[in-house]
Design brief:
Number of domains: 1
Oligomer: single chain
Number of helices: 11
Shape: globular
CATH superfamily: NAD(P)-binding Rossmann-like Domain
Number of strands: 12
Radius of gyration: 19 Å
Strand content: 15-25%
CATH topology: Rossmann fold
Length: 326
């Protein structure tokens, strides 16, 4: 039995499908949104990361737990909430695994849990985790949670850590924040871009790497699952070519976006929308452009697919959900 926390998200929905394709039984932990699992032959269970008893009940009989559940945020003012879910919740998952005799834990961290500097050297698994309290709460919470998972083998739990970059791909039912942004770009609904970019990776490659990490990764090992770095402008141009719409022409510097960020945040609060650029997101745009997946390639045979293929197939999936076939 394979248990997945956060099974209804972008990564979870793809991971469930990959495990089922291998003929493995899956127990999916979900809350309210079950669209990613609709029509799939999976057992479902409800559990709360803050409720150790519910986790123990959900983990009974499991050989492997994939821990994906967590709170993703691009705000700067919600450390307490993220600490409860991402840090304390991960501690509860580890404790439940130990009490239930789980054989292996696969934990999904984030590339933004790692120190990005120095920028002139590739970022790999040996780069230090973040600790500066001035940094975005989400990044700090993922770093703190990963520290707990790194200690799990000493407590008797075989665990491996996978570290994806910015994830895009199909079966993004909610959709994710990046999925929303991609849809807005393809629809011509973003008037201006900010200089900078991310290392983008296909969710299906992340899932394939995680499955290999479960099978081949030794206890305590860590694997970066990265793809290809592209500026937001490049992403917009490729999305425009695929969708047949115009890409935004205006590209502003990060410092100018930071100058107007408080105004954008205020307008978003007034109209109840998600601000397009937050301070946390602008910080992430300064990330290291050289993210190395050499260890995953060597140990796991990991190879990310071309960036344009990911964009084309992701936009095609969104179009299919909307009933629009460009």
């Amino acid at each position: 039995m394979i248990v997945i926390t956060g099974a209804s998200g972008l990564v979870g929905g793809n991971l469930v499908r990959a495990l089922l394709a291998q003929g493995r039984p899956v127990r999916a932990l979900v809350h309210h949104d079950r669209r990613a699992l609709q029509g799939l032959d999976v057992e479902t269970a409800t559990a709360d990361l803050a409720d150790p008893a519910s986790l123990e009940q959900a983990f009974r009989g499991a050989q492997v737990v994939y821990h994906l559940a967590g709170s993703i945020s691009i705000r700067m003012d919600n450390w307490d909430a993220l600490q409860r879910v991402n840090v304390a919740g991960t501690g509860n998952v580890i404790a439940a695994c130990l009490r239930c005799g789980v054989e292996k834990l696969v934990y999904f961290s984030s590339i933004h849990a790692y120190r990005q500097e120095p920028f002139d050297l590739p970022l790999d698994e040996d780069r230090p985790l973040l600790s500066d309290e001035r940094l975005p709460p989400y990044e700090r919470s993922k770093a703190a949670a990963e520290r707990l998972v790194r200690q799990a083998p000493e407590r008797g739990l075989d665990s491996v850590i996978v570290i994806p970059t910015a994830i895009l791909g199909p079966y993004d039912f909610r959709p994710s924040f990046l999925g929303q942004a991609l849809q807005m770009l393809a629809g011509g609904r973003i008037p201006a871009l900010v200089r900078g970019g991310y290392d983008w990776v296909d969710v299906r490659d992340v899932v394939a790497g995680a499955l290999q990490a479960e099978r081949l990764g030794q206890g305590g090992s860590r694997y970066i699952l990265s793809g290809h770095w592209h500026a937001l402008k490049e992403l917009a141009q490729v999305a425009a070519e695929i969708s047949g719409r115009s890409a935004p022409r205006l590209v502003v510097s990060i410092w100018l976006a930071e100058l107007f960020q408080p105004l954008m945040a205020g307008l978003a609060r007034i109209n109840g929308s998600q601000p397009l650029y937050t301070q946390a997101m602008l910080n992430a745009l300064r990330s290291n452009r050289q993210v190395s997946h050499a260890r995953a390639t060597l140990d796991l045979g990991y190879t990310p697919r071309p960036f344009e293929q990911t964009l084309r197939e992701t936009l095609a999936w969104f179009a299919e959900q909307d009933g629009d076939h460009p």
